[in-house]
């Protein structure tokens, strides 16, 4: 899989497509074609290679096929090949995000989509998502607390017992789908913003036995720009941490 990622990143046109999706997610083929000096078919071929490498995802909205950046594989490459060799300040530099507002997009389409493949079962992934003793090992040390039912409130607490995030369970279908409103309280800039929405989709991989695909969509954050910015960088870390925990029994830090 890493070879596919490096191959996909080697072409400047494909890197341009990733840059375009990072600037404004959820673009159509026609939108992307306007930025590259090549045929529509050529752009489609590049997009197909990026999708095969797991670097982008597509969703059908009405009659449009929308393309989304999947930052999780890039995060994994960084963790394996960069972070253990880099100076401590490198992580701070790579965490810097653009403060410019994204281009206006259609109101009804999801915005940030992250996907990862985990060598585990849907049931174990669901347990990792809902068991406080497990979330505390990959979700920025936060342990989740809820009665787990539709309309049930939940909280994510720090080791000191402070509420870091809270929300309500909107949809609950174990071990396949969990939808939750999301309000990040840990930071002053996000605490006063209105709740956004997180959708977790868990499904067995169609072609790889024993592998589960986990997709997280963050949307409904048009009026919560700070929350959007924080989760855009934070969710890939959470998913990478979940994968490491389920596959190795340890946290990303090795604990």
TrEMBL record:
<dbReference type="InterPro" id="IPR036390">
    <property type="entry name" value="WH_DNA-bd_sf"/>
</dbReference>
<dbReference type="InterPro" id="IPR023393">
    <property type="entry name" value="START-like_dom_sf"/>
</dbReference>
<dbReference type="Pfam" id="PF08327">
    <property type="entry name" value="AHSA1"/>
</dbReference>
<protein>
    <submittedName>
        <fullName>Metalloregulator ArsR/SmtB family transcription factor</fullName>
    </submittedName>
</protein>
<dbReference type="InterPro" id="IPR036388">
    <property type="entry name" value="WH-like_DNA-bd_sf"/>
</dbReference>
<feature type="domain" description="HTH arsR-type">
    <location>
        <begin position="1"/>
        <end position="89"/>
    </location>
</feature>
<comment type="similarity">
    <text>Belongs to the AHA1 family.</text>
</comment>
<dbReference type="InterPro" id="IPR011991">
    <property type="entry name" value="ArsR-like_HTH"/>
</dbReference>
<keyword id="KW-0238">DNA-binding</keyword>
<dbReference type="InterPro" id="IPR013538">
    <property type="entry name" value="ASHA1/2-like_C"/>
</dbReference>
<dbReference type="InterPro" id="IPR001845">
    <property type="entry name" value="HTH_ArsR_DNA-bd_dom"/>
</dbReference>
<dbReference type="Pfam" id="PF12840">
    <property type="entry name" value="HTH_20"/>
</dbReference>
């Amino acid at each position: 899989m890493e070879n596919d990622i490096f191959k996909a990143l080697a072409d400047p046109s494909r890197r341009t497509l990733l840059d375009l999706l990072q600037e404004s997610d959820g673009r159509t083929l026609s939108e992307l074609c306007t930025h590259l000096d090549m045929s529509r078919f050529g752009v489609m071929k590049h997009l197909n290679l990026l999708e095969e490498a797991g670097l982008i995802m597509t969703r059908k909205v009405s009659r449009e096929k929308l393309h989304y950046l999947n930052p999780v594989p890039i995060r994994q490459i960084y963790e394996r090949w960069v972070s253990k060799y880099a100076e401590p300040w490198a992580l701070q530099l790579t965490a810097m995000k653009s403060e410019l507002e994204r281009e206006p997009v259609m109101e009804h389409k999801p915005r940030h989509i992250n996907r990862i493949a985990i060598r585990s079962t849907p049931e174990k992934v669901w347990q990792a998502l809902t068991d406080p003793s497990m979330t505390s090992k990959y979700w920025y040390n936060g342990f989740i607390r809820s009665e787990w039912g539709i309309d049930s409130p939940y909280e994510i607490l720090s080791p000191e017992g402070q509420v870091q995030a809270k929300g309500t369970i909107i949809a609950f279908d174990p071990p396949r789908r969990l939808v939750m409103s999301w309000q990040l309280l840990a930071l002053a800039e996000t605490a006063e913003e209105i709740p956004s929405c997180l959708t977790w989709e868990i499904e067995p991989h169609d072609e790889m036995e024993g592998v589960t695909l986990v997709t997280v969509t963050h949307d409904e954050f048009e009026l919560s720009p700070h929350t959007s910015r924080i989760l855009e960088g934070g969710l890939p870390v959470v998913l990478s941490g979940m994968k490491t925990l389920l596959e190795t029994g340890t946290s990303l830090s090795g604990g």
